[in-house]
Structure prediction request, 410 residues.
Amino acid sequence: MDRRHALALPLLAALAGCQFGVEIVVCRNGGDCPEGTACNAELGVCRAIDQGDAGTPSDDDDEDGKPDGGAPVPAEGEGEGEGEGEGEGELPAPSATICGNGAREGREQCDDANRLSGDGCSTTCRADSSVTEVEPNDYPGDSGSVALPTSSVFVAGITTMVYDDVAQQSYPEADTFWLSPTAPAVVRLESYTRSDVDDCSGTSGFFVDLYREDVATDMPAAYLRGAWGNGNGRCSVLTTTLTARPHMVVILEDTGTALIPSYRVQATVLDDRGVEAEPNDSLADAESAAVDGLDATMSGTLADVDDVDVYRVDVPPGRGLRAEIIPDTETTPCDAFNTRVSLLDQGGVERASRASMLDACPYIDGTGDSPKNPEALNLTFETRTLFVAVSKGASGMVGALPYRVALTVR
Ligand SMILES: [Ca+2]
Ligand SMILES: [Ca+2]
Ligand SMILES: [Ca+2]
Ligand SMILES: [Ca+2]
Prediction:
């Protein structure tokens, strides 16, 4: 079996600044920062001074008798320098849908008062079920390669070593299952190693790979896309559009040497909230049809190199946001998908960003015990509004670029 190409990938993408209309100010090339912000040399963007950046918090350019630093720059656009029709820029009050509080609210399909999937109600309050693997299921033709419902949890273990005659060495077994959506869908496949919550212990790593239905005929040719290192801890998340055809999912241990006695893979069909409504280039105009982030997806298009699409998501206390930007076809790999995602706070300040890379489409993840982006985890006592901005990647652009945004709050 192909051991994949990504073993030596660096986990973190380089962080870089990007310009977002009036909201984001790039300072890498000598630009000035607005009041209350200072240039962050690492990100190359202006960040709120209260984030510990170098700056001049004792400045008092506005002569109000108080230092200009402190709270992030609000969206009132009081300087009205750049325009963009901000007006008063009043942002709507945050609202919370709390999955796991035992009360069914908003678009929740259920709420069983826990944060575990596979028990009938998922950690994002969507109906799900649990399917236990049947061995052998190492290869596409194996009898144990069961078909999974698209809202389900695959409970399995990588428990045996298999000797490869060609390579003349042993590898951990693979586990496979089939996914056959009855209609085109956006599906997230996420691995977990903890049994009590949807999270990872940090000790085991995965590849989650997707193949076409003719996988048994020519496995390398049928390969569509893989995910590695982009989830909680060392777990992985493969989010993709799927045509209404059978697809094979292959789970591999990522070092090719270790066993993983117990793990789960959650398959979730994201709730389609439609198409972005332009203009949505600023916080005040942000698209909010998926504001609850309950496993929601929207489709958008970067119309030209200057287009920025901003999505609003409200995150309850103690919960985190995962946002991912994926191609609108299952055949486009992440590293050939030239987009970038940024996380903005209510002041329009960029807190994190990531671009496309091999085996990981652009994502921000504040979920789980050790989130890769702690900025996307809400540690305050109040529901907080975050903004997800989509823009083109670094390698230029030819024509309009369609994409999907995938959101989960949990
Ligand atoms: Ca609830
Ligand atoms: Ca549950
Ligand atoms: Ca197994
Ligand atoms: Ca757009």
